[in-house]
Amino acid sequence: MMADPKAIAVCSDSEYSWAMQLEAARDLPKAVLHDHLDGGLRVETMIELAADAGYSSLPSDDPVELADAMFQGQSGSLRAYLESFSHTVAVMQTTAAIERVAYEAGIDHHRDGVVYAELRFGPSLLTEQGLSREDAIEAALLGLRRAASETGLVFGLLISAIRHDDDSEDVAISAVRYVGEGVVGFDLAGREIGFPPDDHLPALHRAREHGLGITLHAGEAAGTESIAAALGKGGAQRLGHGVRIVDDCKVEDGEIIALGSLATRVRDQRIPLEISITSNIHTGLVPDVQSHPFGMLYRAGFNVSINTDNRLMSRVTMSSEVALAAQTYRLTASDLGTIAVGALRAGFGDWEQRQRLIEDVVTPAYSAAT
User: Fold this and answer.
1) N or C: which end of the chain has fewer CB within 10 A?
2) pLDDT per residue over 201-211, tens digit each?
3) Selection from 57, 101, 62, 59 nearest residue 310 by Cα
4) Given 99, 192, 220, 274, which residue is catalytic?
């Protein structure tokens, strides 16, 4: 799947064409920290799973038409963007379906040059037809393990509680059962505005107590108060999106020239920002790619990573997002290598595996590209 042409029609004076940028990005090893399983289904898989489940509410059973219907480039808000998940969740209500989606996600990332992937999903969303949360988690792990065994992909699974629901502690109880078996982190996803981490402190405490990494969606739909709450009471080690930290920065002529106290903390403590440029445009965070603060955040020393968020809804891959960032913000191969290594260091998975990827795969590849 390619990125939305409107989102990538930038830098017309660039030395390299978009096609060349994309091809170069595909050849580079990449790490993704923020990718939703239920936001990355293949449309052909959706159609087959819907038929198997007797689900008749897909917008179309034609792959091209369904891809167009699932694309959320014009949604304009996070809430509208999230409405499309009703279809993907509906066809993922069996263990076979969940395993297949997870397996295909691993395969698709590997084909795109991803060597380390942390994928996330909310198991409570997949219990409408009788599965337990544990059933859903085990099925996802099975699919990812199968993909890893075939490709060598290193993966970690993040378990998301939905912040506008009230079962987050039950989700955390399920998640911690699989510490050491592939589950590496805990997340709060869903509607950010009006649903602070304060509502989920028992869940967050339980997840931290049992060794799960904490990454919370914050600074996407809501502003710096959401980021402060995620880092404070939420105990977040990473921020899902986090781009609204720029609201605590002074900007002149497209560059950050001064930081407020919260932005200083995020930068100086190297708190990772899991940024998804195209998704941020589609949810209305910024009007276009040139307005996105990714470039200025990177140049100001923030710990940014490049991510897909939802490959289906935003029509992106890691390669298209890397190429978009490189072309728009004039990132060199050395810059991209710094970002990729930073993402691996920020991961929650086995450190020896991540260190091996840094030393044996990522650093040599970007050095050669430079």
Assistant:
1) C
2) 999 999 999 99
3) 101
4) 220
Q: Which of 47-56, 123-132, 188-197 has the lowest mean pLDDT?
A: 188-197
Which residue has tokens 């993966």? 155
- In angstroms, the CA 4 to CA 237 distance is 31
Sign of the dihedral defined by the CA atoms of residues 232, 237, 242, 246, in that order: positive
Closest CA to 361 of 147, 153, 106: 153
Query: Which residues make beta-bridge pairs with 273?
Result: 239, 304
Element (H, E) at 119: strand 114-121
DSSP 3: P
**pLDDT tens, 303-350?**
999 999 999 999 999 999 999 999 999 999 999 999 999 999 999 999
220 included as an active-site residue: yes
Under 8 Å between Cβ of 227 and 218:
yes
Secondary structure tally for the chain: helices H, strands E: 19, 10
Residue whose C-alpha is closest to residue 112's, from 33, 39, 22, 26:
26
**Helix, strand, or coil (residue 123):** helix
User: What is the DSSP code string of 241-253?
Assistant: E-GGGGGGEEEET
The number of beta carbons lying within 10 Å of the beta carbon of residue 290 is: 12
What letter would DSSP give residue 181?
T
pTM here?
0.93
Domains and CATH numbers, the chain: 5-369 (3.20.20.140)
